[in-house]
Amino acid sequence: IATVCIxxxxxxxxxxxxxDGDEQLLSIEHPTGEFEIYLDADRSPPVPVxxxxxxxxxxxxxxxxxxxxxTNFLTRLIHDHS
Length: 82
Known about the structure:
By secondary structure, this protein is an alpha+beta fold. It has helices spanning about 10-15, 70-80, and strands spanning about 25-30, 35-40, 50-55. It has one domain. It has 2 helices and 3 strands; from the N terminus they run H-E-E-E-H. A hairpin with a 6-residue loop joins strand 2 (about 35-40) and strand 3.
C-alpha cells in the first residue's frame, strides 16, 4: 500500500499526502486503527525503485482492560505464594 502511494498514475498517489524526499514515514489507516510504514525509494526514475520498506508491530494487546502476563511470571507467583 505504501509503495502505491508514490507510484505515478495510481489512485493512491492522487489522494495520499507524501513528502518529496526518498525516505518517508507513511501512516496507513485500516479498520482497527493505523500503522506507520517506513519507505525508502529512489523516486527519480519514471517508476520508483524501492530500496527498503518496513513496519514495526508488536504482539502485545494494549488498553484491553485485561492484564496479560507471561506464564513464567504466573508460575513463579503461584509458587511463591503457596
